[in-house]
Amino acid sequence: MERITKKVRLGSRLEKLVPGLLLAIASISILTSIGIVFTLVVDASHFFKEVPLSEIFSKELAPLRSKDPSFGFLPLIMGTLTTSVIAMLVAAPIGLMAAMYLSEFVKPKMRRILKPIIELLAGIPTIVYGFFAYNFVTPLLMKWIPDLGAKNVLSPGIVMGIMIIPIVTSLSEDAMSAVPKVIREGAYGLGSTRLETTVKVILPAAISGVIASFVLAISRAIGETMIVTIASGSSKQFTTSIIEPMQTMTAYIVEFTSGDAGSGTIGYYSLYAVGLLLFVFTLCMNLLAKYIIKKYRREY
Fold it and tell me: CB neighbours of 283 closer than 8 A, spacing ≥ 6?
């Protein structure tokens, strides 16, 4: 009896310790996020003390110029947005059609085979995608676009689109599969074909999940580093041409962390300013995705 009482007491003590332990483990991600934001804000503040906002949102970017360096981030923003838009123009239609096929047209047994194969694209290292864009896609595009440079934003944009196809496909397919079967049967009962049911019934019913997958895919494209670093070049000139080289925010960070800017210089602190700007971009995209899910979500 005494032994049982000791076990009960020990179990009671462990029961009291477990919530605290789980809270500490769950707090790791929160504390990490706070630490990242704190580091970016503190170090970026040194940059913003020296560089006015009017210069930051200008088109002239010459951070390594010996006299009067300029830190206009518009070329970086344009490069980032251009590659992301090209990526979505590739990933959105292909990923959505793949999701429609997996959700409505393929048999469950085949779906269990095809979906993991598509998701394997997300497991390929991005540096491999970068060399694929530079050594294969760019020479291939040069045959069709003679004016295309060896470094350009079109090629990495296309390859980034291929890379984020699994995000669009997987999340969109999950959203479509969550639509109740009775809705499909009702559409079929009214004489709709499978394609009409998919496009006019299932897709509108799952629109919140589909749009959220697009937004999350754009967030992934905005934060991509190695593909654009290898294939898009390091031109800091402001341009809107997709056949010319551009530099994205992530590529700028990679270039400067290689040792071009000495520690403590204004160029060094510009890394944190660009990192903070990139963080704000991705945070806004994720908040937008959550807003869309909450606003347009349908419960059945």
Answer: none
Q: Which of 107, 73, 134, 99 is nearest to 271 (CA)?
A: 73
Q: Classify domain 70-296 by CATH architecture.
A: Orthogonal Bundle (1.10)
Which is nearest to 157 in space by CA: 207, 248, 250, 82? 82
**pTM here?**
0.84
pLDDT tens digits, one per residue of 82-138: 999 999 999 999 999 999 998 888 888 888 888 888 888 888 888 899 889 988 989
Residue pair 182/248 in contact by the 8 Å Cβ criterion: no
Ranges of each domain in the chain: 2-50, 70-296
Judge contact between 51 and 61, C-beta under 8 A: no
CA 40 – CA 121 distance, rounded (Å): 31
Alpha-carbon distance 60 to 236, whole Å?
8
